[in-house]
Design brief:
Layout: H1 2-52, H2 56-89, H3 91-94, E1 104-105, E2 111-118, E3 124-131, E4 137-147, E5 166-168, E6 173-179, E7 191-193, E8 196-201, E9 208-213, E10 222-224, E11 229-230, H4 237-241
Parallel strand pairs: 1-4
Antiparallel strand pairs: 2-3, 3-6, 4-5, 4-8, 6-11, 7-10, 8-9
Amino acid sequence: MSKLRTSRIRLAGAAATAVLATLSLGACSNGSGVQDEGASSKVQPSTSTGQSAGTPASDTGSDSSSGSANSSGSAGAKASTNGSGTAAQTPTSKTPASSAAKPVTCEGSNTKTVAAPLNRPLNHMLLTVTNTGSKTCYLYGYPAVRFGEAQSVPPVIEDSQPQAVVTLQPGESGYASVNLSAADGSGANGHTVKTLSVYFQGRSGNESVGTGAHPSLPAKGVHVDDSLKVTYWQQEMEDAISW
């Protein structure tokens, strides 16, 4: 009995030891597994973010640099285009010198003058001056005309003076009429002339400026006498021939 009891006690002790060992092993295995999974779950997002997408600094730098370059390039292109468009459209880019827009005095080099005898009023001639230049010009005073070999210019009809200086844009015309001779034949020293020179006045009106014009006359010439006189330059033809 004594041996049997002792044997049972040993078996029970061995079984208990085995159970404890099993429990201890299971506990260690579970604890390690939980810790491994926990460590894995903590490391995995970092590894996934860091390795799969690249390091944040590298990716951010690359994306930022690329975005910045694209933005700068796009903005630069737009700015350059807008700048060029605006510059093409600004006055300084089209006009070499600001003085190009400054009006000048009308004279022979920037105008064309035509002389045409009129049937009505009788014994009158119309002078038409057209601005052939690229700038606006002022047609001051009245034409200083010389027919043939005349040494002096005829007087002006004072009442014909306009309220403002005649201004001609490029392509526009101004007018003056010439009373060639007395309609009733009362004028003295009547004679025929075949050449005409027209000179232009400056702002002061005291002297001629620039070059003169030499419009042609009819082949048979025109008849003039001592009643010869001219009007001031007019903006409208009707105002010129009304005298």
